[in-house]
């Protein structure tokens, strides 16, 4: 990445702004949800192509087929091999159809596990980039073992010996996101969201009315600042002014710094200690009610997210 010192100053500047951000009112919170879904936000491949000097994508789950909604492979990040896995949405109608709007089926999660297994065997760190409204909910995916594939992906991430970092880069919803989210360090971009279900899905279940998505989002407040305060994520990654969609290069440069710092720190910790800390981290998460009325998770931090 170019001009890292300038990028570092930018990180501190935006981090100060994030610290001063108060609890968002309903309208602003819904705007955050929409911003996480912005059609011009950088997707998984946009980040990989900027973070890696080389990237070789793997295809197929060696059982049924390939899933274009999930990208997985190996790249060179800061002159070291790293496995990158993430959901990929599409820019236009044809690509969105091909990528199934970033909603992976069981083949996608089995492909992810295939790459994780290779990375673990070779001692290569794993980075996951989360950006999905959820796993594909169709009957065909259920017939091919959707739930089992997601649960086995979670189980594998629990057991990996190598350093792992998960980054929510846009919309992180439901088990489709959690299937790639059990990592040593979990980061969220400033304008991303992370929740147990999409607002539309929650409103359809709770009120049988998808038009109440705004009300559902207000109930569980899925913004990065809230997820940090509840202890769901470890850090909030600042974005360029106006959002990551305004400057893909700057957004990737900032994420580069956070990833490099996290992987460097994790690489110095013995594998057994990393696994133990990973288990303890997720076992501490629980359905505790946020004092301000939101359906938060974990007894969390009282201060806003740091840079």
Question: Which properties best describe this structure?
Answer:
307 residues; alpha/beta; 2-enoyl-CoA Hydratase, Chain A, domain 1; eight-stranded mixed β-sheet; 13 helices; 8 strands; 45% helix; disordered N terminus; disordered C terminus
Task: Tell me briefly what this model is.
The protein is of the alpha/beta class. Helix content is 45%, strand content 16%. Helix 2 crosses helix 10 (213-220).
Word description of this protein:
- It contains 13 helices and 8 strands.
- It has 307 residues and is of the alpha/beta class.
- The chain has a single domain, classed as 2-enoyl-CoA Hydratase, Chain A, domain 1 (Alpha-Beta Complex), CATH 3.90.226.
- Strands 1, 2, 3, 4, 5, 6, 7 and 8 form an 8-stranded mixed beta sheet that branches.
- α1 (4-19) packs across α12, α5 (106-122) packs parallel to α7 and α9 crosses α10.
- The radius of gyration is 18 Å and the shape is globular.
- The two termini are 19 Å apart.
- How much strand? 15-25%
Shape: globular
Number of helices: 13
The residue-averaged pLDDT reads: 87
Topology, pairings included?
Blueprint: H1 4-19, H2 26-36, H3 44-51, E1 54-58, E2 70-77, E3 80-87, H4 93-99, H5 106-122, E4 126-132, H6 139-143, H7 146-159, E5 164-173, H8 174-178, E6 185-189, E7 193-195, H9 199-206, H10 213-220, H11 224-229, E8 235-237, H12 248-267, H13 271-283
Parallel strand pairs: 3-4, 4-5, 5-6, 5-7, 6-8
Antiparallel strand pairs: 1-2, 2-3
């Amino acid at each position: 990445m170019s001009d890292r010192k300038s990028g570092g100053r930018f990180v501190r500047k935006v981090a100060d702004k994030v610290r001063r951000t108060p609890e968002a009112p309903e309208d602003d919170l819904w705007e955050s949800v929409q911003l996480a879904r912005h059609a011009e936000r950088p997707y998984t491949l946009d980040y990989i192509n900027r973070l890696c000097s080389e990237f070789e994508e793997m295809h197929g789950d060696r059982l049924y087929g390939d899933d274009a909604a999930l990208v997985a492979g190996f790249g060179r990040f800061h002159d070291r091999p790293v496995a990158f896995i993430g959901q990929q949405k599409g820019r236009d109608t044809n690509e969105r159809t091909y990528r199934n709007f970033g909603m992976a089926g069981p083949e996608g999660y089995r492909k992810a596990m295939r790459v994780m297994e290779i990375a673990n065997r070779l001692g290569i760190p794993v980075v996951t980039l989360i950006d999905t409204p959820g796993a594909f909910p169709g009957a065909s995916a259920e017939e091919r073992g959707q739930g089992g594939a997601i649960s086995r992906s979670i189980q594998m991430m629990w057991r990996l010996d190598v350093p792992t970092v998960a980054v929510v880069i846009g919309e992180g919803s439901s088990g489709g996101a959690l299937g790639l989210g059990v990592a040593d360090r979990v980061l969220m971009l400033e304008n991303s969201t992370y929740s147990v279900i999409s607002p539309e899905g929650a409103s359809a279940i709770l009120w049988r009315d998808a038009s109440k998505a705004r009300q559902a989002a207000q109930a569980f407040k899925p913004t990065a600042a809230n997820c940090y305060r509840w202890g769901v994520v470890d850090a909030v990654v600042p974005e360029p002014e106006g959002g990551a969609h305004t400057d893909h290069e700057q957004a990737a440069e900032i994420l580069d710094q956070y990833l490099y710092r996290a992987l460097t720190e994790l690489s110095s910790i013995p594998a057994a200690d990393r696994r133990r800390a990973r288990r303890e981290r997720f076992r501490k998460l629980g359905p505790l009610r946020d004092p301000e009325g939101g359906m938060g998770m974990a007894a969390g931090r009282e201060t806003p997210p740091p840079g």
